[in-house]
Amino acid sequence: MKYTLPLIAISSAPLLLTGCSKPDPMSFEALSANITPEMANLTQRQVDIDRTWALSYNENLRMASDDLVRMWFGGEPSQLSPYPTINTSGQP
Question: Across residues 60-78, what is the average pLDDT?
Answer without folding.
Answer: 81
